[in-house]
Automatic annotation (TrEMBL):
Stored CDD domains: PBP2_Bug_TTT
Signal peptide per UniProt: 1-26
Domain of life: Bacteria
Protein known as: Tripartite tricarboxylate transporter substrate binding protein
Cell inner membrane among keywords: no
Species this protein is from: Azospirillum isscasi
Length: 321
């Protein structure tokens, strides 16, 4: 019995010491460099946003933030690493909309609740885009064609279960129309297919078709956002047309749950200063990406809303596992 009491006391002492050490480390945060995990390959949109953020936030923290790419599983590998990281603020990550979709596909064990949002940096809505030579000049004309020809209108997306596939499915669900959803290995191949008139439309973001729209080879009919795109102000929102569908991909900074409050607040404050820099916004503009900052609490609300919406949608279309 005495031995039992001794071991128990020792364990409590060790745990208390560890807790005190973590509290002390949190109090002086950051005392060393910070790793920013990007769940996608270098050179992609998420990676470029992360690097623009790191450049800006490094001017507002006493220690450097460095980008590390951890790819695989459509984002599941990197996001899982962020979730499982020690909650001390030294391994943070780029949280993307896939936090709300991958769990429904059965390829990830995390949920929105496993992350503490710091700041949303960017968001890109889905847009219905057609070839400039197509007969449809408005979204109403395109939807009328789809109604008259069920399953004939082919909409290219970035892969089954990916965000742009879900965007087109959301449009189909809301309008009661039937489209032929054609998956490609990313947005660029889908756009290439549209340029070749192999499909009738794509549901990718305006940023991913911007150069072709500027060249006059593609036409955006509508965007799935609450407001019109600043880059393409002539394209109406679906909401303007009486279709209540808002679907977007987004990117922002997240940390593991249970990260100490003062660490979270330090990152929130530094992130706010970083995104207010004109240089950060200029970097997004160069990439045709939208500035869409939300502070942590508002970012959390947006993430939870998307999680509920995608769970219901993916169950409805038979993708939920």
């Amino acid at each position: 019995m005495k031995s039992y009491r001794f071991v128990t006391g020792a364990v409590v002492g060790v745990l208390t010491s560890a807790t005190m050490m973590m509290a002390a480390q949190a109090a002086e945060y950051p005392a060393k460099s910070i790793e920013l995990i990007v769940p996608y390959a270098a050179g992609g949109g998420t990676d470029l946003v992360a690097r623009a953020y790191a450049d800006a936030v490094n001017r507002h923290l006493p220690q450097s933030v460095g980008v590390v790419n951890k790819t695989g599983g459509g984002g599941a590998v990197g996001l899982s690493e962020i979730m499982a990281a020690r909650p001390d603020g030294y391994k943070i990550g780029m949280g993307t909309v896939e936090i709300t979709t991958l769990p429904n596909l059965g390829v990830a064990r995390f949920t929105v609740a496993d992350f503490t949002p710091i700041a949303r940096l960017n968001a890109e809505p889905s847009a219905i885009t057609v070839n400039a030579s197509a007969p449809w000049k408005t979204i109403e004309e395109f939807l009328a064609y789809a109604k008259e020809n069920p399953g004939k209108a082919r909409i290219g997306n970035s892969g089954t279960g990916a965000i742009w596939h879900l965007a087109a499915e959301a449009l189909a669900s809301k309008t009661g129309l039937k489209f032929n959803h054609v998956p490609y290995d990313g947005a660029n191949p889908a756009v290439t297919a549209l340029l070749g008139n192999h499909i009738e439309a794509v549901s990718v973001s305006p940023a991913e078709v911007s150069s072709h729209v500027a060249a006059g080879t593609l036409r955006i009919l509508a965007v799935m956002d609450d407001q019109r795109s600043k880059a393409f102000p002539d394209a109406p929102t679906l909401k303007e047309k009486g279709i209540d569908v808002t679907v977007a991909t987004w990117r922002g900074i997240v940390v593991p749950k249970k990260t100490p409050e003062n660490v979270v607040n330090t990152l929130r404050a530094a992130s706010k200063k970083a995104v207010e820099e004109q240089g950060f916004r200029d970097q997004l503009n160069k990439m045709n990406l939208s500035y869409a900052y939300l502070d942590g609490p508002d970012y959390k609300v947006a993430m939870e809303k998307d999680a509920e919406m995608f769970k219901a949608l993916m169950k409805q279309i038979g993708l939920a596992k």
